[in-house]
Amino acid sequence: MRENRLRALWRDGGAAINGWLSIPSSISAETMAHQDWDSLTIDMQHGVIDYQVAVTMLQAISTTDVMPMARVPWLDPGYIMRMLDAGAYGIICPMINTRAEAEAFVGACRYAPQGYRSFAPLRALMYAGPDYPERANDTVLAFAMIETRTALDNLDDILSVPGLDGIYIGPSDLGLSLGGAPKLDQTDSHILAAIETILAAAQRHGIIPGIHCLTPAYARRMVDLGFRLVTISSDNGLLARITADSVAEVRRSMAGKAD
Fold it and tell me: How far apart are CA 171 and CA 177, in angstroms?
């Protein structure tokens, strides 16, 4: 079976740099895949990507060694299983607030007897190899999003669920839930304290802590803090930022020449 390079990276003590795909395009996904990310996550919750487009994006990512992941729209076992069957090597599931929800999520990612994932891997067999059925449970990743006050209250119950590989902090929803602003690079002291509480709990339970960031500097700060998976913005966000900077630079140079 094709190795999950994220697991190997973490075994060696490294941190993974994750890209975020919200543009429904295989060409865009392929371009992102060739930019040296460790993994790319197809966002099916807040982006405008449907299942059929997501499959073409997984195929595009397969032109590289970048690990393909997906954030599903919700805790929907059918959606989780379809994305795994399509070849995703990791699932990020939003709004996991209780142990029961975490158990349902992990179960959807695992074949029996560890879970209740239905068997029909389809494209996953072509991507991963013929021994996928025997090795999938130990290869694909299950990341529960921790992003509410309720999840904080149930943190140890959630993180102690067998088979959960990691947690992924959604800073915007976490900020809203704690009375702050919905933004990625959080700076409010009480929200940072919550982030550090989640990080410490993940480390205590021996699972991988991940977080979504806006800027490279903040991502590096989170790695230094102990996070092992950091996302930098999104394809759409990076496109907008570099475009705005490039246009502004030309306009400044034109204004200077006119003066």
Answer: 10
At residue 142, what are phi and psi to the nearest 5 degrees?
Answer: -120, 110
Q: What is the C-alpha R_g of the chain? A: 19
How long a stretch of residues is the chain? Answer: 259
CA distance 217 to 205: 27
- CATH superfamily for 5-258 is Phosphoenolpyruvate-binding domains (3.20.20.60)
Q: Would you please indicate which residues are annotated as catalytic (active-site) residues?
A: 46
In the block, tokens 């990625």 appear at: 184
Quick one: which H or E segment has residue 152? helix 149-153
Residue type, 94: P
Question: CB within 8 A of 243, min separation 6: which ones?
Answer: none
Residue pLDDT, tens place only, 115-170: 999 999 999 999 999 999 999 999 999 999 999 999 999 999 999 999 999 999 99
- Which has the closest alpha carbon to 124: 137, 106, 113, 105? 137
Domain ranges of the chain: 5-258
CA distance 179 to 35: 37
Predicted TM-score (pTM) of the model is 0.96
Check if the beta carbon of residue 58 is closer than 8 Å to that of residue 32.
no
* CB-CB contact of 178 with 221 (8 Å): no
Residue found by looking up tokens 């500097």 in the block: 217
